[in-house]
Structures are given as C-alpha cells and as structure tokens.
Amino acid sequence: MNRENVPLDRVPKDVQRAFVAAENRGFYSDSGISLTGTARGIASTVTGQGKQGGSTITHQYVKNYYLSQEQTVSRKVKELVISLKVDRHDSKDDILAGYLNTSYYGRLAYGVQAAARAYYNVDVEDLAVEQGAYLAALLQAPSQYDWAVAAPAGKRLVKARWGYVLDNMVEEGWLEHGERERMTFPEPAAPKPGAGLSGQTGYLVDTARRELVDAGVSEQELAGGGWKITLHVDPAKQRALERAVTKGLAAGGRSPKSGARKPDPDRQAGAVSMDPRNGRILALYGGRDYFRHYLNNATRSDYQAGVTFEPVALATSAEGKVNGKYDVGPAAVRRTAESLGMRTDPSGFASPQATSLGLMGAAPLEMAGVYASFSNEGKKVTPSIVKSAQRGDERTRLPKAVGGPAISPPAAELINSLLATSLTRDMENRAFVVPPRASESGRAVTGTSGPSDDGKAEWFIGGTPDLITSIGLFGEDAKSQKQVPLKNLGDGHPSRIWALYAEAVSGGPPAGVGSVPGR
Questions:
Q1: pTM for this model (two decimals)
Q2: Are the CB atoms for 473 and 458 separated by under 8 Å?
Q3: Which of 89, 103, 157, 307 has the greatest number of C-beta atoms within 10 Å?
Q4: Where are the alpha helices (DSSP H) in 234-295?
C-alpha cells in the first residue's frame, strides 16, 4: 500500500481549503452528517441503484477508516451513528487530517502525501493551490479523472470540477477573485507504474481493475490490497497476440515510388481477443510496455472508430426494417451503440454522417464487445477479463457477460453476412491474403478494416464464431503522447496482425487467409 500519513500542518492551508470547498463547504460548522445525504444513500441501497457517496467530510472519513465497503442499510445506519460520535469526540482538524490521509486518489496513491508524489512529484507541503484543487477534484472518480488516462469526456469533467473547487473557494473568501482568474489548469506529471507491472502485466491488471470498479467494487477497497483475482486470459493466446503485434509494429510498408518504408515510430497498438459465446477476454495487448506507456491502448477511447462503426449504423437501419420503423437518425444510432455496450459521447452524434463515418471515439475492448454481440445472435456481450475476485472469505459477485438482446437476431444475421462480404472484398485487395476458401471446419470468417476519417487510427475487427479479435493502431507522438496521423496508412497492418495471430492460435490460417510474408 502506497501511503504515508502526514500531520495536517504539513498540508498548506489553501490546499486544505480546496478539499473542503470540493467536498463539504459547511464542514467547519456542521455536525458531521447530512440527513438528506444519508437518506439518499439508504434509498439507493434499498432500490439497488448503486453506491451513494458520503455527503460530509466526516461521513466519508468514517467510511474510509472505520467500516468495510459493504452496501447495506445497517451499514448506512452505522455510518450515521459513528459520524456523530466522531464529530463530537475529534476536532475538525483531526477529522480533516484523517480524511486526507485515508482517501484514495488513483495511481495506487493512498493519502494526500502519496497523491502529491504520484501526480506532481512533490511533497505535500510544496503543493500549489491549483494542484491541490486538482487532487480534491480527483477524489470524485480517481480512474476516470486521472489526466494521463482520461477519455476526452473525463478530461472535460475533471477540468470543470477543478474550476468548481476554485470558484467555491472564492465564494467562501478563501481565494482572491483576481488570483483565481490568473490560474491555469495544472496538468499532472506522467504516472510511474508500480513494481511487478512491466510488459503486458500492468495492462491486464488495469483492465481487471476497471471491470471490478464497474461491478461495484470501490477504488478504496482495491487500493487496500489483499485480493486474489483470477483472469480468463489464455496464456498461449496471450503470447501469440503479443508476438503478432510486435511483428506487426516492426513491419514497414511498400511505396510505389520509393519501395520499402521504415516502420512508423509513432504507431501504437491496442488489441482484445475474446470468445463471443461467453464474453471471456482470452488475450489483450495494451501497449509496448506498461512502464514505457502507461495509457492502456486496449481500453482507451480517444481515437475515432472509423469504418468499424458502420455496422452499428447499419444495425440501426436493419432494426428499423424489422420493426417497421425506418429511423436512422443520430439519436437512433446512439441508442443502438449504447445497447451494444458502447459508452457514447453526445457531442459525437451531431449528424447521421458523423455516426456512419465513425467520428466518435471507441476502444478496442468496446468494439470487440460490439462485434461479439453481432456474432452472438444480437445478444449484448460485455467483454470480461475477471474470472473471479476474492478478498478473504468474501467473493465478489460479477455481472453476467452475456445479456439480453441488444439487436434482433435477423438484424445480427444481416450484419454478419455484410461483414463476411466486406472481408472477402478486403482480402481480394490485399497482397498477403487470398480470397476466402472453405476451411475443414467450415467456420465462417467475418470482419472489417480501414482507417479513421482523420487518418490517426486504423482498425481491423473480425474473426470466427468462437474468437473475435479487435485491433486498433493509433498515431501518437512518442515524446508528447499527442495524437498524430499514422504513416504507411492503408498498408493493412491491423489485418496483418490479425492474420499472424489467427494462424498461431488455430494451427493454420483461418478460412480465407493465405500465408503471411515475413513470418
């Protein structure tokens, strides 16, 4: 556990006030509880609507320090009683110090001193008020708001909350208006992964962590350690995917004028391979090395989906025909994307053209789930990497990976036939594959590939009824980590990676795939 308790006098006064402004402006005068907040928490627990955060700093400190993270009505009542006792027994400074030292900030940082080191490479006493306001804003959603890995929507949200914290400080008289106006957002330093997370291990852990948080396990619980987590990952397929991506990234291309091209140094890869019948993630590639590239390319959703999003728009049209309602507008496409498991951003749905061209962001893991749903007769398939998670005697209940219908079976059948046709056409235009031929098992092969509209991403998604693989190549400057256009675009690198991988895990080329040069 990465934590170092510090006395409150080591925390600058304006940083202390930033946390109070973020979480509980009435902290210095309240009784330690909010009856309305507690009532909301009990109601959400009874109705199964998810977790409700403590509404006062005292209440949240009690949750962090005194109690487990179980969500029951009796637990909520205990929180209320203990919060009242703590407020009467301890000083406000003691409570605030306890809160700052027990909160979880992401990046495996437990407590404000560890957070200061993890995000700004300074000790807590050297934090500027702008930096303290970011750490205070971070507490609301540590994984979502970590600037290094946040999606565009997450960055907008944390920046807005950072401004909210500072504005509250101005209203409370803790910060001069002119000083507030001169402040700029303090982007944190790049994270440094912990020991034992090199290679692909860190990405696997990160993906499992995200899944458990989505399943209702708190960041606080995970940070506390003591977990035994088993993954669905197949070691042989994992090794094969790593080798295929490594070879694919090392390959250059061919230019009609100059001949061979050098490999693109600004090319990143993310890939997920899963069984569409049960949602199990069998292999995952998150980047070259978790120590060298902390951002998980398998789960990042800041690059355009490109042509791989077209089947979602086509599924919307097919559903309209099946149900007698031909609605293919942006709202309808968005609903289809969400029903298939995509986390949509409303700003990406400005027009039907925007949706059909795939101008919205998407992650390889998300797209694997979408195509798995097509393969599984339209049933919603949520990719799952966690087989089991246990802490002591308590076993976490995980949601089912395969749910009810996201689209109708006829619509799914139509999409699969179109994907098979698309793959046939794609293979006929590639030098390294031959047109599809029937395999001994007769397994159908579906897939689609192509670049994004802005040329910063190139995709291949496809496979067989028992193995869907989603591969994305992303243009990212090696030094600044900003998005850049891909070089050698259109040379078929994602489908080359898939062919190498599919051949390795199936004992031979999948149906329709010929030999791959350079093996």
A1: 0.79
A2: yes
A3: 103
A4: 235-250
pLDDT tens digits for range 353-400: 555 556 788 999 999 999 999 999 999 999 999 999 998 888 999 999
Compute the distance between CA of residue 173 and CA of residue 162 in angstroms, rounded to an integer: 17
Residue 39, classified by CB atoms within 10 Å of its CB into exposed (0-12), middle (13-18) or buried (19+), is: middle
How do beta strands 280-285 and 379-381 pair?
Answer: unpaired
Give 272: exposed, middle or buried? Use CB within 10 Å, 0-12, 13-18, 19+.
buried
Q: Is residue 435 exposed (0-12), middle (13-18) or buried (19+ Cβ within 10 Å)?
A: exposed
Asked if residue 57 lies in contact with residue 86, where contact means CB atoms within 8 angstroms, the answer is no
pLDDT 10s digits, 319-335: 887 777 686 778 888 88
Sheet with 394-395: list strands edge to edge. Answer: 227-231, 386-391, 394-395
How far is it, in rounded angstroms, from Cα 44 to Cα 187? 35
Sign, Cα dihedral of 218, 219, 220, 222:
positive
Amino acid at 344: T
Give the C-alpha separation, 195 to 201, whole Å.
11
CA distance 11 to 124: 6
R_g of the chain, CA atoms, integer Å: 25
Residue 507 has φ and ψ, to the nearest 5°, of: 80, 10
